[in-house]
Amino acid sequence: MNLHLDGKVVLITGANNPLGIGAATAYKFAEEGSKIVMVYKKISKNYNPNNIMENGFDKYLKLNSEDASCVEKKLCKITNNYLILEKDITDQNAIAEIFDEAEKKFGIVNILVNNAAVCDEISDNIFSITKDIIDNTFDVNVKSTILMIQEFVKRNLDYGRIINLSTDASQKFAGQITYGASKATIEALTRSIAIEIGNKSITINTVSPGPTQTGYIDKELEQKILPNIPLGRIGKPDDIANIILFLSSEQASWITGQVIQVSGGHYI
Prior knowledge:
Distance between the termini: 29 Å
Number of strands: 7
Shape: globular
Strand order of the largest sheet: 3-2-1-4-5-6-7
CATH class: Alpha Beta
Number of helices: 8
Helix content: 25-40%
CATH topology: Rossmann fold
């Protein structure tokens, strides 16, 4: 199937984890002949360096604490048409700069993938949540997504694809209440914005992944999760990237305002 993505300019946020959904999506688009703009921000995290060789939160925190050099090493073997920017998307001025630099190199951005997100792994529960955690989570996961979409829409007059990332646990995420609430907000925004921008021939959809191995799922957690996944395996970043590509394609031109769960049947 020809997805007609050759030459399209794709902007992906949160793309520095080489095992992440953002990186997998960049590789897939590059293989289709798209021009790639990747945006990331290094977030300093404390992790145990003795535990980074095996999957688990220490490895995941390390991967997200680094720059995008590992992603670039693989991407450059697929294409030369890419741009990597280290920017803080909570800064509205930085968002304008991202689009300016993308347009200077490649022209108008055709496809926006809002993948960047943060989550407090320890205190995101009603007993220990703090104002700072709430503010930071919603700044990155919600405010930045809205501002990225706004900038994208301002610059696209008659065509575009927007894909947001949520989680299949958005409606009920005990232990990660602020993260879950931020993703439920994204799902609601997707439906509302779809109505507002439909006359511009811009579609907007949200992909809602189930448990996906981006480096954080250790063996113990995997065994705990598997009984709740009817298809019997945890997700791979490529599973999510494939649906993002489809939603970006001509074949998906009449799909908008949808939240599509990609979870192997988890949380159905």
